[in-house]
# Entry
Amino acid sequence: MAGVSPMRVQQFIRGLVFPASTGEIIAYAGESGADEDVLDTLRSLPDESFQTPSEVSDAIDKLDQYEFNPEDEVEEIDLEEEDGDI
# Structure
């Protein structure tokens, strides 16, 4: 899913009448020739009704914002204070 921009997704949902459900968006994109990367991104969206194409783009941006990258370093947090109390 990484690397699928909202702009790329918009190419495949241009002309779709909104509001539209996630399922309708996926079906329309598939009929418009979207590849599996685009469809996988759309399948990752919450199951809800989107009022505009911009809402779809915003939801895709949020997916990328929270995507886990295993190469990212994770900082260990010491939950105990100096005196041993939490």
Q: What stands out?
A: Residues 53-65 form the longest helix (13 residues). The two ends are 39 Å apart (CA to CA). Helices lie at 6-13, 22-31, 36-43, 53-65. The chain has a mean pLDDT of 83.
